[in-house]
Amino acid sequence: MSRMLHRTGLVPRRVHIFLVVAATFVALLVSAGLRATPGVLMQPLELHFGWDRATISFAAAVGIFLYGLVGPFAAALMMTFGIRRTMLGGLMLMAGATFASLWMREPWHYVLSWGVISGIGSGAVASVLGAAIVNRWFATRQGLVMGLLSASTATGALVFLPLLAWLSTGGAWRPVVMAVSLACLALVPIVALVVPERPGDIGTGRFGEELGSAPPAPLKQAGTAGLAISVLLRAGRKPVFWLLFGTFFVCGLTTNGLVGTHMIAFCGDHGIAPVAAAGLLSMMGLFDLVGTTASGWLTDRYDPRKLLAVYYGLRGLSLVALPFLNFDTMSLTIFAIFYGLDWIATVPPTVKLANDAFGEQEAPIVFGWIQTGHQLGAALAAFGAGVIREATGTYLPAFVVAGATGVIAAGLLLGWISRTQFHDRRHIA
Question: E-assigned strands of 175-319?
């Protein structure tokens, strides 16, 4: 269908590249919005079914975990089966699973629909998709475009929350489910229409490449699982992989796992209505769009390791401070702006470091495995914070511990930079 769109002459070849980016941006936005929806559903499901918060948090944790675990296999599937087909399959799984949840009656129904099936579907439309699109369609400006696509994942997770919270007014949960399901379904024809498999399909090359340049050599065809595992085994021999995996674990722990899942409930403990709390998250999403796009621009120009150290350090300190705020409008607005700018500004530098260390061909799969670390951290925070809240009656320990991990991640990155500089000085001497 994308070839037909091009043949009509309505869309110039180079303009079509940005249509691909736009479609990918919206798909990532909706996928991330789906993964954030359990935060809105937490209180309505608790009221309607009588399920405890730890049980509801478990379903969110399963979805977040699979969202990450599927990443490297989805990247390999894109290499062997195709990016567009993988996107379409993921979107249809998300639409079907969420729609089926309208008839759920037991907690395991929620775990199956919003945890397992939608987790698998959304994992195919996650940050690894952005990395694959950037590497396949852009020879230059990769950091900037990756920043824009990364921003969409947080923007989707946060910007839609006020609407979803409004739909859940009075404890209603079915309108929220219907809205998410229809959004996923609406994207299917759009992706089919405007996303070709590769630039050559519409008679153009990668952005920033001269027409006629040879495209990057594709990976040898292999079984999807085998390709993903073999890339992991090669990447695991390099310490840089485990450093990026560990710091991205902290990224997930401190963002969508904790703040994205529990912020509305946390604000509710302080007497703030769900719509108002969702508005704070929406503000974070808007500022994340600015912050992560700017982070992509900075990644093209500065040492990504230094950027990551700053991002994690500031994020950790802000999370430690949050529980001790007055929770008035001014303090929460300042936190939302500051935290939003830093939400997933970590993605462009991490992708850049993965590309540099593992090469553009294998980097999307490697980043998929690094993304698994992110979602492991997010799943731990989503479930653990719910357990802590049930056991202690407060979220304070969860936020303080998460903040401390951010400071530790910054310290590890500074240590990496110091060791590299010391090695370089010795080599020169």
Answer: none
Residue 140: phi and psi, rounded to 5, are -125, 170
- Kindly report the average pLDDT of the chain as a whole number: 81
Query: Which residues have a Cβ under 8 Å from the Cβ of 255 and sit 6 or more positions away?
Result: 154, 343, 344, 378
Note whether 185 and 63 are within 8 A (CB): no
8 Å CB contact between 62 and 125: no
Contact between 262 and 398 (Cβ < 8 Å): yes
How far apart are the C-alpha atoms of 381 and 351, rounded to whole Å?
23
Mean pLDDT to the nearest integer, 299-321: 89
Looking at residue 126, what is its pLDDT? 77
Number of domains in the chain: 1
Structure tokens that stand for 9 in this block: 């002459």
Cβ atoms within 10 Å of 186's Cβ, excluding its own: 13
Residue 169 resides in a domain: yes
Kindly state whether residue 208 falls inside one of the protein's structural domains: no
Q: 286-295, 386-395, 404-413: which range is least confident on average?
A: 286-295
Q: Is residue 166 part of a domain?
A: yes
Adjacent-strand bridge partners of 138: 207
Cβ neighbours for 69, distance < 8 A, ≥ 6 positions apart: 123, 372, 375
Kindly state whether residue 217 falls inside one of the protein's structural domains.
no
For 330, 396, 429, the CA distances from 369, given in Å and listed in that order, are: 39, 31, 38
- CA dist 283 and 254 (Å) reads 17
Residue 260 structural domain: 2-199+224-428
155-202 residue pLDDT tens: 666 667 777 878 887 778 899 999 999 999 999 999 988 888 777 777
Phi, psi of 138 (to 5 degrees): -130, 130
Report the SS3 class of residue 115.
Answer: helix
Residue with tokens 């489910």: 177
82, amino acid identity: G
**36, 158 Cβ separation under 8 angstroms:** yes
CATH number where 277 lies:
1.20.1250.20
Contact between 268 and 274 (Cβ < 8 Å): yes
DSSP state of 235: H
Rounded to 5°, the CA angle 49-52-56 comes to 85
pLDDT (tens digit, 9 = 90+) per residue, 1-39? 555 555 554 555 667 778 888 888 888 888 878 887 887
With beta carbons less than 8 A apart as the criterion, state whether 125 and 90 touch. Answer: yes
